[in-house]
Amino acid sequence: MTGSTSTGGTPQQLSLGVSLRDDATFVNFFQSTDAVNRQVVGLLQAFASGENPEPAIYLWGESGSGITHLLQSVCQGAESAGRSFQYLPLADLIEAEPEVILDGLDFLDLVCIDDLHLIEGRREWQTAIFHLYNRLRDSGRQLLLGARKSPRALELGLADLQSRLQWGLTFQLHPLSDEDKLSALCQRSRLRGFDLPEDVAQYILHRAPRDTRALFACLEQLDRASLQAQRKITIPFVKQVLNF
Q1: Residue 20, Cα to own-chain centre: how many angstroms?
Q2: Which CATH fold topology does 12-172 show?
């Protein structure tokens, strides 16, 4: 159940029909000036490779704080290290039977569960994750969790799971400041192979949705349109493509 390699910018296909974005890597994750965020990135790199033996890590923060990107980066790092893993975005899987989704995962080196807050009010998911947590811990495997809420703030009916979630390391990730978002746009453009003028980046930042995922989606759309039209990315071109 490890991810298969892919090229050309297409997502990596995993079991369960789940995919990883090729650009969800540690290299592409903007290292903000926030000290906690920088600490977490270094810790997760060691966690992905298996050099950090911590049994469980819990990341939480509001939308746009980079949790999904980091969870997928850990999976990419695990694959590079030859480790078995599974990425589970509960936003896509929550309506499925948890026993079916989680069956056999305790034989993997690493399990990453995203959108954990969605198990609120779902006792069957809470019970299944509780048992998975115990099996992974007992067998020396690792678990990485991402959520919008801290372990204490989750509204869970299963007290034993709430207790388990507080056993491992917990980190709150903070969204990027506007200055950091501007730098992140410019960094991401360079990684895509072009330079984004600062005035264009400012224009995008002040008109696009402020969520970093949406900002990067705008950048990707502009890159594709620029290549197709063989035009530089200027403010008039941004207006034309993004209808700003």
Answers
A1: 9
A2: Rossmann fold (3.40.50)
Measured CA to CA, the distance from residue 119 to residue 222 in angstroms comes to: 36
CB contact at 8 A, 181 and 211: no
Residue with tokens 């730098």: 183
Assigned token pair, 135: 């099996």
Domain boundaries of the chain, sorted by first residue:
12-172, 178-242
Q: Are strands 110-114 and 142-147 parallel, antiparallel or unpaired?
A: parallel
Q: What is the pLDDT of residues 2-55, one digit of tens each?
A: 443 333 333 443 556 677 888 888 988 887 666 677 789 999 999 999 999 999
Q: Where are the alpha helices (DSSP H) in the chain?
A: 35-49, 67-80, 90-93, 98-102, 123-138, 159-165, 178-191, 198-207, 212-229, 235-242
- Output the CATH code of domain 178-242: 1.10.8.60
